[in-house]
Amino acid sequence: MSEAELNKLEAAFEEKIANEVKIEPKDWMPEKYRKTHIRQISQHAHSEIVGMLPEGNWITRAPSLRRKVALLAKVQDEAGHGLYLYSACETLGISRDELYEQLHTGKAKYSSIFNYPTITWADMGAIGWLVDGAAIMNQVPLMNTSYGPYARAMVRVCKEESFHQRQGYEIMLKLANGTPEQKEMAQDALNRWWWPSLMMFGPTDAESVHTEQSMKWKLKRKTNDELRQQFVDQTVPQAEILGLTVPDPDLKWDEEKGHYNFGPINWDEFWQVVKGHGPCNKERIGARVAAWEEGTWVREGAMAHAAKKSKKEVA
């Protein structure tokens, strides 16, 4: 391809981005755009799949049948989200097996929040309220992202995440209005999950190596710091309704700026977890690899059945 032809394609691509026209799988796109989307969509898909693990072991221990059913439905939703997103990622020319291999070998990242342990039932409430609340904050703008398959997948994902957030808040509300021991359990969960939830939005804008390009391509609509501030402003009043205290002595309403000022985040902890040294990093990847290996016979059986069925239909 000549330089003139390449320049023409790039100009047409940039015009689509500027005019809010979705980029579709068969459209020409810069290689960096393709790779950027593979990284972000796969990271999102991996997060949904690994995110099933902290909650899965509480299904049998949930305090009532209603809670068991609701938590089971949530975990199933997360599996579905992962599948939607892997499918969207495959449209960029990467196979599902490659994506799994990247996750299992540590080449690809997933949200650092899922490397923390779930110690009590209140953690199920805190994850729904805080973690899924932060996820919604991140994901709603993605319904307008420039890559068509990703934007369309996010419509259903966001609707279901909204249900998960309300489910978590209801658990926290029940505990906060329960016995002193139950309220203390809810407060303890908030204490442990608050700061990791703020870290979910990624490093500060000054430290983020991807934000500027992602904003230019309209992959992201708001920066990490903007989303983090929005999350704090929305969540602090919810904690006040619960009668719980946000574990930040520096938290204060700024009347002039119209938002909450909050204390410094421990970025050393964030990078330690991202680099694989969090409380549950090895456990999470170990569980995923074991599930993949133990499920080999299921995949092989399904492929054999599909091939047999196809051969029969042809005959």
Protein architecture, described:
The protein is mostly helical and 315 residues long. Helix content is 67%, strand content 2%. A two-stranded antiparallel sheet has the order 1-2. Helix 6 runs antiparallel to helix 7.
Low-pLDDT stretches are none
In DSSP terms (H or I, runs of 4 or more residues), the helix count works out at 13
Strand fraction equals under 5%
Largest sheet: 2 strands, antiparallel
Overall 3D form: globular
Instruction: For the record, give the distance between the C-alpha atoms at the N and C termini, rounded to a whole number.
Output: 44 Å
DSSP strand count: 2
Secondary structure: helix percent: 55-70%
Q: Order of strands side by side in the largest beta sheet?
A: 1-2
Can you give the mean pLDDT? 93
Q: Radius of gyration, Cα only, in angstroms?
A: 21 Å
Output the structural class. Answer: mainly alpha
Order of helices and strands: HHHHHHHHHHEEHHH
What layout of secondary structure does this protein have?
Blueprint: H1 3-18, H2 31-50, H3 52-56, H4 65-90, H5 96-104, H6 122-139, H7 148-176, H8 180-199, H9 211-216, H10 224-242, E1 252-254, E2 259-261, H11 267-277, H12 281-294, H13 296-314
Antiparallel strand pairs: 1-2
